[in-house]
Amino acid sequence: NENLQQFFVQHIFKLEQQEYDKEAISWEHIEFVDNQVCLNLIAHKPMNVIALVDEESRFPKGTDASLLIKLHSNHAAHENYLKPKSAQNTTFGIRHFAGDVYYESRGFLEKNRDTFSPDLIDMLTVSKCQFLASLFNKEKKMGTETRKKSPTLGAQFKTSLDLLMKTLSACQPFFVRCVKPNEFKKPMMFDRELCTRQLRYSGMMETIRIRRAGYPIRHAFQEFVNRYYMLRKGLKVSDNTVNVIEKCKKILLGTLGEGLWQIGKTKVFLKDEHDQKLEDAREDMLTERVTTIQRVWRGYKQRLYFKRLKKACVIIQKAWKKFSVRRKYLKMRRGFMRLQATFRMRKLTRDYRKMRARIHGFQCQCRGFLQRREFKRRRKCVILLQTHFRILLAKRVLRRLRFQKKQTEEAERLRKEEEERLQQEMEAEAARKEAERRHQEKLAIMEKERKEEEERLHKEAEEKKRLAEEAEKEAERRRQEVDETKMVAEVFEFLPEGEQDTSNAGVPEA
Asked: To 10 degrees, the CA torsion angle through 395, 401, 405, 411?
C-alpha cells in the first residue's frame, strides 16, 4: 500500500510539479503528504524493518523478543516509528499514510521463515495419494539446511512488489480510488467521517487542489495546432515549427482571450474549462463543416438518387403505360372478339335455324315421300297378297263346291240306284223313305267332314295370320333400325358439306 501510494504521489504531485518547472511556467507549489520517509523506514533504507526481520529470521537463535529489541534500538528516534511506552508490550507501530498501525511481534519470525514442517513432509511422502505426494516434490528433494536457507516470506514479497512496480512504471497509469461508504457493508448508508478520512489519507484532497491549481491538459505545439487550427481563419496545418508558437497564441487569444492558460517551452498548458471551451468550439466548427459536407454530399447523393429514381420512374411509367394500354387493348380485343363471336353466333344461329327449318321441311317432304312410297308399296303388296289370297280362297271354295257337288251328285246317283234296288225289293214308298234316310246319313257325314275341313282351314288361316303379324313386326323393327341420317344424306347428296352437316345435326331434333 505504501509503494502504491508513493507511485500515486509521484505521478500526481512530483512529476506534475517537475513538468511545470521544466516548462518554466509560473505557478504556486502545493504542499502534499509524501510517504517516502515511511517507505524508507519499511523497505528502502539500510537496516529497514523488512531487512531486520529477514536478518533475525536467518539467525538460529533469533527470537521475536530479539527482533523487537533491534527494531527499538534502530528506529526509536524515527518520526514514523511508534515505540510502545511499556517494555512488557510486544507490539511496535508504524505511522502509515492512512494512519497509525500497531503490529504484534509474537510469531513474526516463524511466519516470515515460511518453513515447511518435516513431519508434514514425511507424512506426505508416505501418502498413497499420488496427487498429494507429487505436490511437494521440490520440498522433499531439499534438505533441512537447504529449506532453512530458502528465501523468507518478506524477501519473496519484496521481490514480487519490485516486479509489480517495474511493470506499473512501464505503463501509463490511470488511478481509480475506491471509497468504503460504511463499516457494515449495507447499501444506501454513508459514513461521512469515514469517507472524509479515506479521502484525506489517500491524498485526494491534495490531488483536487493540484488539479484545480495546475494545468491538467497539455498539448505539444504541433499537436495543438493540428487539432485546433480550424478555429482561426487562415491557419493551415504544416510541419514547419517556426511559427507554431504564434499559431498557438492566435488560436488561444481568438478562442479563449486572455486567461489562465500558459505556453511553456514545448507545450501549451490548459485548465479543464479552457480545454472544454476549445473542444466545444472545435466541435461546433467541425459540426458546422461536417454539416456542410453532409449537406453537399446528401444533396449530391439525393440528386443521384433523384436521377436514378426519375429514370426508374420513367421506365416504370413506360412499362406501366405499356401494360395499361396493352391491357386495355387486350380487353378491347376480347370485347370485340366476344362481339364478333356473339354476332357470328347469332348469324350462325339464324342461318342454322333457317337451314334447320329448310331441312325440317325437306325431312318432312322426304319422310312424307318415303312414307307415301312405302305406303303405296305396302298397299300394292297387300292388294297383291289379297288378290292371291282371294284367288286361293276362291279356288279352294271352288274345289270344295265342286267336291260337294260331286259328292251330292254321287249321293243322288247312289240314292237313285238304292231306291231302284229297294223298289225292286220293297214297296215304292218304303224304298223311297229308306233311300232318303240313307241319303241323309251320307249328307250328315259329308257335312261333318266339311265342317272338319273348314275348322282345319280356319286354324291354318289363324296360324298364317299370326306368322304374318310376326313378319310385320320384324319388318317394322328393321325399318326402325334404318339410319335415317344416312338415308337423308344419300337423298340430299347435292347439298354442300357444311350445309349437309348442319342438316344432319338438325335431323334428330326434327
From this structure: 120
Which of 320, 227, 336, 333 shows the shortest CA–CA distance to 275?
227
Task: Tell me the pTM.
Answer: 0.41
Beta bridge partners of 270: 217
Q: Indicate if the alpha-carbon torsion angle 196, 202, 206, 207 is positive or negative.
A: negative
Determine the 3-state secondary structure of 47 from DSSP. coil
List pLDDT tens digits, range 270-286.
Answer: 777 777 888 888 888 88
Burial of 14 (0-12, 13-18, 19+ CB in 10 A): middle
Coil, helix or strand at residue 95: strand
DSSP H helices, 219-271, are 221-228, 244-255
Rounded Cα distance, 344 and 350, in Å: 9
pLDDT given at position 363: 83
Q: Which 3 state secondary structure label does DSSP give 136? A: coil
Placement of cell 335455324 in the chain: 353
Provide the mean pLDDT of the chain. Answer: 76
Q: Vertex 422, ends 421 and 427: CA angle to 5°?
A: 135
Q: Which residues of 297-331 are buried (b: 16+ CB within 10 A; e: fewer)?
A: eeeeeeeeeeeeeeeeeeeeeeeeeeeeeeeeeee
Q: Are 245 and 222 in contact (CB under 8 A)?
A: no
**84 to 62, 71, 108, 119: CA distances (angstroms):** 21, 12, 17, 38
pLDDT at 486 over 70: no
75: cell is 528506529
pLDDT for residue 491 is more than 70? no
Give the total residue count for the chain. Answer: 510
Q: Which of 431, 14, 47 is nearest to 206 (CA)?
A: 14
Read off the amino acid at residue 243: N
Provide the 8-state DSSP code for 31. Answer: -
* Alpha-carbon distances of 385 from 381, 391, 393, 396, rounded to whole Å: 6, 10, 12, 16
Q: What is the DSSP letter of 93?
A: E
